[in-house]
From TrEMBL:
Lineage: Eukaryota, Viridiplantae, Streptophyta, Embryophyta, Tracheophyta
One Gene Ontology cellular component annotation held by this UniProt entry: mitochondrial inner membrane
Name of the protein described by the UniProt record: Mitochondrial substrate/solute carrier
The Solcar repeat ranges on this chain: 4-136, 145-236, 246-331
The keyword Lipoprotein is annotated on this UniProt entry: no
Any one GO molecular function term: dicarboxylic acid transmembrane transporter activity
Originating species: Arabidopsis suecica (Swedish thale-cress)
Gene Ontology biological process terms from the UniProt entry: mitochondrial transport
Family: Belongs to the mitochondrial carrier (TC 2.A.29) family.
Length: 337
């Protein structure tokens, strides 16, 4: 396994991640809208209705699962989620405008250092491993790399990459979400290094892998759908005479399709991952507990919060990623290491 595919993938991912970071930040802010973990003593979000007088029906634990899933209990929430008629839904543009107005334009790049580190670790690993399996599993006589094999390679590559990049992912989510918190709850990390140091010191090393089960599953879904779709669509276009292997139009069409497929497939687990990573220890008993509470308090469509900015980001991100990757490969094709 050569080092070059990892370097090529890492360079392309860093450029794509940095350029589309504002869209990712807006996605995270939208995914955190309506989160139940706000105390009754403060109402930092005017879109949430706090009512101390409403009767609360006590619930017995529905599930009791340990380890990765954790214990689940539908306990009375401190916040009664308002109905759709009383809760306003902010569009991605409105969220972005609100961030610029209240926090300044630079806030759109909050956590960009963590994004760069995450792409160095996560994307470089997953793309390098996928390339390794692609070379190994492509039929040398026919050049055939079946779709099922592409998906398998993507699942494995995504799982390994997510484990490597999870600490940076936790730091990135925390830094992106900070501006949406009340002033007395903001962490005010100075950089990704400061974030990692403080998380370890205050919450322990294991907190760097908080939500890792979700991250692994999300990464497997994203990598399998993104890379497999890109290769598959590219092959279909070339085979049908509607594109050339090295044509920019082919790369743009294939990468845009890959981005949309990846966004739709991964959004539910991405929302839960964001909530878990941003939460304090006592908020959720595990990923399934988080999902159950979200659906109970905010409705099933809460799992698709941030889908528009996710799709809006995944399209450009994937296009920039693969267009840059093709250029980097061309520049390094004669370099041996």
């Amino acid at each position: 396994m050569g080092f070059k595919p990892f370097l090529e993938g890492g360079i392309a991912a860093i450029i794509a991640g940095a350029l589309t970071h504002p869209l990712d930040l807006i996605k995270v802010r939208m995914q955190l809208q309506g989160e139940h973990s706000v105390s009754l003593d403060q109402n930092p979000n005017p879109n949430l209705v706090l009512d101390h007088n409403l009767p609360v029906k006590p619930y017995r634990p529905v599930f009791a699962l340990d380890s990765l899933i954790g214990s689940i209990s539908l306990l009375p929430s401190s916040i009664h989620a308002p109905s759709s008629s009383t809760r306003s839904v902010m569009t991605p543009f409105a969220v972005g405008a609100h961030i610029v107005k209240t926090e300044g334009p630079a806030a759109l790049f909050s956590g960009v250092s963590a994004t760069v580190l995450r792409q160095m670790l996560y994307s470089a690993t997953r793309m390098g491993i996928y390339d390794f399996f692609k070379r190994r599993w492509t039929d040398r006589l026919t050049g055939n790399f079946p779709l099922v094999t592409k998906i398998t390679a993507g699942l494995i590559a995504g799982a390994v990459g997510s484990v490597v990049g999870n600490p940076a992912d936790v730091a990135m989510v925390r830094m992106q979400a900070d501006g949406s918190l009340p002033l007395n709850r903001r962490r005010n990390y100075k950089s990704v290094v400061d974030a990692l140091e403080r998380i370890v010191r205050q919450e322990g090393v294991s907190s760097l892998w908080r939500g890792s089960w979700l991250t692994v599953n999300r990464a497997m879904i994203v990598t399998a759908s993104q890379l497999a779709t890109y290769d598959q669509v590219k092959e279909i276009l070339v085979a049908g005479g509607r594109g050339t292997p090295g044509g920019i139009g082919t790369h743009v069409a294939a990468s845009f399709a890959a981005g949309i497929v990846a966004a739709v497939a991964s959004n539910p687990i991405d929302v839960v991952k964001t909530r878990m990573m941003n939460a304090d220890k006592e908020n959720y008993g595990g990923p399934l507990d988080c999902a159950v509470k979200m659906v109970a308090e905010e409705g099933p469509m809460a799992l698709y919060k941030g889908l528009v900015p996710t799709a809006t980001r995944q399209g450009p991100f994937t296009m920039i990623l693969f267009l840059t990757l093709e250029q980097v490969r061309g520049l390094l094709k004669d370099v041996k290491f």
